[in-house]
Amino acid sequence: MFKGIITPIVTPFNRDQEQSLNYPAAQKLTDYLIKAGVSGIFALGTNGEFHVLSRQEKIAFTSKIVQFVNHRVPVFAGAGACSTHEAIRLATEMAQIGVDALSVISPYFIRPSAKELIGYYQEIAASVDLPIILYNIPQNTGYNLPVSVVKELAKSENIVGIKDSSGDLELLKQYQSIACAADFQVLIGSDSKISDAYHYGVRAAIAGTSNLLPQTLVALDHALNEQRQEKAQELQESISVLRAALKLGTVPAVLKRALELAQIAEVGPARKPVTETTPQVDDQIIAMLKFYHLY
């Protein structure tokens, strides 16, 4: 069973013409997060900009993350694609480099039928001997994974859970009802809904804000598990200051700039076409960092 705070780590880039991968920054950030107490590192999530990396870069970066983590916590890796063939190829290569679990986003740009979604996930699951986590993020794919599809996929031996980033608590409760009836787990992917999700029985969060605020997110997880509701509410509400700042730019430009301004790691910019933050936005990021005593 997955528990605690899992960080979907940003992918650091150099400020060179190619915006090449910055491995020293990735190692520094990985060590910072594990020292802060996160329960897992997740490469190639949305904040990890998987959508602008080549397959070769995805394998190379994830291989380095596996090396940097060195079995201290589980390593999760994103292996979804628009085509089943590409997702299988990526999943099998991820398995070879030693990740502990795969997260698989549903195909984006198109809107597959229920039958097609089931086939997509079942074929990927059959190609590897690794736990598979479904990834529901309708704001990026254009649709929710239907409850009927998730219920059917939960019967597969190595499809073990779903990350729900919909922010829809009614949908989350329906997913959680599947988890209660099967060997299956829901992981919350909406940082503002962590407390709500734990109330419904969820016990793990894949939280992008934990890149910058791992101690806060870990403390929130502990407070919720220990039924310290007042403390949990205080911590949950505190995250809203960062979440408001993140809206000042295209994902993940503000988060990456905040990590740099806080001197946590020189993670560089988001890849183009996403542009760097302006001096005016930097001033607002610094104000946010001062709220958390990070500047």
UniProtKB/TrEMBL annotation:
<protein>
    <recommendedName>
        <fullName>4-hydroxy-tetrahydrodipicolinate synthase</fullName>
        <ecNumber>4.3.3.7</ecNumber>
    </recommendedName>
</protein>
<comment type="function">
    <text>Catalyzes the condensation of (S)-aspartate-beta-semialdehyde [(S)-ASA] and pyruvate to 4-hydroxy-tetrahydrodipicolinate (HTPA).</text>
</comment>
<comment type="pathway">
    <text>Amino-acid biosynthesis; L-lysine biosynthesis via DAP pathway; (S)-tetrahydrodipicolinate from L-aspartate: step 3/4.</text>
</comment>
<dbReference type="InterPro" id="IPR020625">
    <property type="entry name" value="Schiff_base-form_aldolases_AS"/>
</dbReference>
<dbReference type="GO" id="GO:0008840">
    <property type="term" value="F:4-hydroxy-tetrahydrodipicolinate synthase activity"/>
</dbReference>
<keyword id="KW-0963">Cytoplasm</keyword>
<keyword id="KW-0175">Coiled coil</keyword>
<dbReference type="Pfam" id="PF00701">
    <property type="entry name" value="DHDPS"/>
</dbReference>
<keyword id="KW-0704">Schiff base</keyword>
<dbReference type="InterPro" id="IPR002220">
    <property type="entry name" value="DapA-like"/>
</dbReference>
<keyword id="KW-0220">Diaminopimelate biosynthesis</keyword>
<dbReference type="InterPro" id="IPR013785">
    <property type="entry name" value="Aldolase_TIM"/>
</dbReference>
<comment type="similarity">
    <text>Belongs to the DapA family.</text>
</comment>
<dbReference type="InterPro" id="IPR005263">
    <property type="entry name" value="DapA"/>
</dbReference>
<feature type="coiled-coil region">
    <location>
        <begin position="217"/>
        <end position="245"/>
    </location>
</feature>
<keyword id="KW-0457">Lysine biosynthesis</keyword>
<keyword id="KW-0028">Amino-acid biosynthesis</keyword>
<keyword id="KW-0456">Lyase</keyword>
